[in-house]
Design goal:
The protein has 13 helices and 13 strands. The protein has 331 residues and is an alpha/beta fold. An 8-stranded mixed beta sheet has the order 7-8-9-3-10-11-13-12, with helices on both faces. Strands 1, 2, 4, 5 and 6 form a 5-stranded antiparallel beta sheet that branches. The protein binds adenosine-5'-triphosphate (ATP), iron/sulfur cluster and magnesium ion. The site of magnesium ion (MG) has 3 residues, from helix 1.
Length: 331
């Protein structure tokens, strides 16, 4: 966990992303609000298809448009309107003040360029003062920093010569190469062996501490959330349904969906490791249900839930919930 300062770094208001396909429209993200303060680690959780990746990709406009259509009332980084930037200006932010780490580094790395050259390229793109030689030396230094053994030699190798864990280390090196203010990490350890996951997470924590960067950490793993994050954003069906500090969220969830997520965690304190998954499946985002999108699966649903969409309301103490019955959940 980090010391939090309150200066706002990223502000997203009413983000909507639709995918316009031949015969249907997928409402992938539907009115997301998200604020990230300097230095804080915010976990984004939610079942598969809830819109976590699409939200993260929208920030620096990484989605292919079309088929994506991205709209937001506000999309601001350090007060700068990201929607007004040219592709070139956006590229200057990526890998500079905003570092990105993806689940599968193979898709983000260039297969025909050595790892060292790729990191050096990132350095050169953002630090005009350095020459090629200095940038290469910096790349080796960064590989050392992220725990790649024999970094000078490994820097000359290509992505396919690296193991999954090592590739993810190289991605982290690239993300922190220019001392970012924000790191966006989308399931950075999901594709790795369990034994490697812990190492890469520790490294991510170290990178976060050393750069002091705020971090958006997308993960399925509530254990990782508990260990790393300051605050949690819970997404369901393309919306934010709850936000709270990690402690509050685990102590007293204020949305039935969060309650369901927590109940499906393996229990450490009992003999059984039986899970209670949330019944049913997330909705088809090409035809989302009216009212609260969680109502077909919610044991607390009432009539109003089928017709009226609950807005994400501030419920005090910096928390927010999008449930008509959030007060009942408090008791
Ligand atoms: N290029 C695309 N074309 C059409 N639909 C898409 C596209 N990319 C994402 N979607 C849809 O948008 C919705 C949100 O997807 P997203 O990848 O953000 O989910 P996620 O929360 O990241 O899930 P996961 O945990 O599986 O990574 C899903 O319904 C998905 O099928
Ligand atoms: S609004 Fe209704 S259906 Fe939605 S989570 Fe709350 S109780 Fe359940
Ligand atoms: Mg995803």
């Amino acid at each position: 966990m980090t010391e939090q300062s309150n200066a706002q770094l990223l502000k997203i208001e009413d983000l909507t992303v639709e995918f316009h396909l031949d015969d249907l429209v997928v409402h992938a993200v539907d009115g997301v609000d998200l604020e990230i303060n300097e230095g804080e680690i915010v976990a984004v959780v939610g079942e598969s298809g809830s819109g976590k990746t699409v939200t993260a990709m929208s920030i620096l406009r990484l989605l292919r448009e079309p088929p994506a259509r991205v709209k937001a009332a506000t999309l601001a980084f350090r007060g700068q309107d990201l929607q007004a930037l040219s592709p070139r200006q956006l590229r200057a932010i990526r890998g500079g003040p905003v570092g990105m780490i993806f689940q599968d580094p193979m898709t983000a790395l260039n297969p025909v360029l050595s790892i060292g050259d790729q990191i050096a390229e990132t350095v050169l793109l953002h630090q005009a003062k350095r020459d090629k030689k200095a940038a290469r030396a910096r790349a080796v230094e960064l590989l050392q920093l992220v725990g790649v053994p024999d970094a000078a030699h490994r820097a000359k190798q290509y992505p396919h010569e690296f193991s999954g864990g090592m590739r993810q280390r190289a991605m982290i090196a690239m993300a922190i190469a220019n001392d970012p203010d924000l790191i966006i990490a989308d399931e950075p350890t999901t594709a790795l062996d369990v034994t490697i996951q812990a190492q890469v997470l520790q490294l991510l924590q170290k990178a976060q501490r050393e750069t002091g960067a705020a971090t958006i950490l997308i993960t399925h793993d509530l254990g990782i959330v508990a260990e790393m994050a300051d605050r949690v954003v819970v997404m369901y069906a393309g919306r934010v349904v709850e936000t709270a500090t990690v402690h509050e969220l685990f102590e007293q969830p204020r949305h039935p969906y969060t309650l369901g997520l927590l109940a499906s965690l393996p229990r450490m304190d009992t003999e059984t490791d039986r899970l209670d998954p949330i019944p049913g499946n997330p909705p088809n985002m090409a035809a989302p249900p009216a009212g609260c999108p969680f109502h077909p699966r919610c044991s607390l649903a009432q009539g109003i839930c089928k017709t009226d969409r609950p807005p994400l309301l501030q419920i005090g103490g910096g928390r927010a919930s999008a449930c008509h019955f959030h007060e009942e959940l408090a008791s």
